[in-house]
Predict the 3D structure of the following.
Amino acid sequence: MKKNEVASGWGIGKIFQSVFISQICFISLPVFLFAQSDVPTPAPKQSQSIYLTHATVHSGNGKVLNDATVAFENGKIVFVGESPSFKTDATMGKVIDCTGKHIYPGIIAPNTKLGLTEVEAIRATNDYAETGGYNPNVRAAISYNTDSRVTPTIRSNGVLYAQIVPQGGTVSGTSAVVQLDAWNWEDALVKEDGIWLNWPSLQSGGGWWAEPAASKENKDYEKQVRAIKDYFREAKSYSLEVAHKKANLRFDAMKGLFNGTRKLFVNASRVKEMQHAVAFAEELGMQVVIAGGRESFLIADELAQKNVAVMLDNPHSLPAYPEEDIDQPYKTPAQLQKAGVLFCLSIPGGFWQERNLMFEAGTAAAYGLTKEEALASITSNTAKILGIDKTIGTIETGKAATLIVSTGDVLDMRTSNIEHAFIDGREIDLDNKQKELNRKFMKKYGLN
């Protein structure tokens, strides 16, 4: 633009027009994206009593009821028992005949990036990590995207709750438990449950692409551990002070670790790493959960004795070392169960992969767990570890009506078929983009 154009009415008009159009485009973009999101509208609050009758009810705590009814009102379960002893009629509310079907607690997926990433290859859709090494004040909850297209595909397989976890650095941030049918992150948030720490590895180098011999001893291990201990000790000292001349947002976020209101989740897999992390947590009086735990079966008795829970990752995996049994990852859940360790199953850092969590539990059932123990590893056990077991995780009177109805065994990919899902008594729309595309192309080729 020429200098004299700026002073002219034509020049000013052009500037105004350009800014106006830019603003219109900017305002319209989110609306366009929302219209194209293909995410089902969140379900309204439960308005009438609902009765699920004549089903096999898997309570999540080991109990199985045949020909049973589950009734709920105002989002709470009011009855669980034998169907013949509970009479229903059309005036009582909505009655769903579940003859030959199975009712399970809603599945809970821990240690996920669900809602924090959409397309891994597109950087702008990834919001799960911050720069810097120590970020306990980073809250995953406020980055949670309720309009993600991925979430409905997870819900349709029975996952109704998730723990969303920040990644990266040494102290990644604060995780949150969310329910998967909400308008925004505030509606989705159930609780912010803990701080995540990536414990240093005893080995450096290597990777899935490299030979085991490429992995070398981490010579900086002691130095890295010492830095973590110094940081947490300073944070604890800060938490004990009544008043501060200057607020420290990072240390403020860690206060819950020292007063027992939040847990420390530690990513560690090797025996020595886990033992060091547990000893460190004991020293500072923190509740600790081991996330990963690939070698946890080797110290299962020790973990049980110290009451340390394990968030076991990826049972569908190859052995960590050549000398291990080929089916060791499949057997580990049963070994932890036998030792009395509280554990749950996870697909760490996953998002769309969470739809397979229940099938990983099914594999664990084929390698030593009972079906009900395997179910607990993705429902009631997870709820206990995340501190939400007073309201969800099992099908019991007084708890939230968060459950699923399947025509087959939810742990078996050949028969699992979720027909109904409820979160706090609200019936969830189980449609998703993948089902829509299936209908579209079935119609195109005349296969429907």
Q: What stands out?
A: The chain has three domains: 3-35, 41-106+393-448, 111-392. The longest strand covers residues 64-73. The first helix runs from residue 3 to 7.
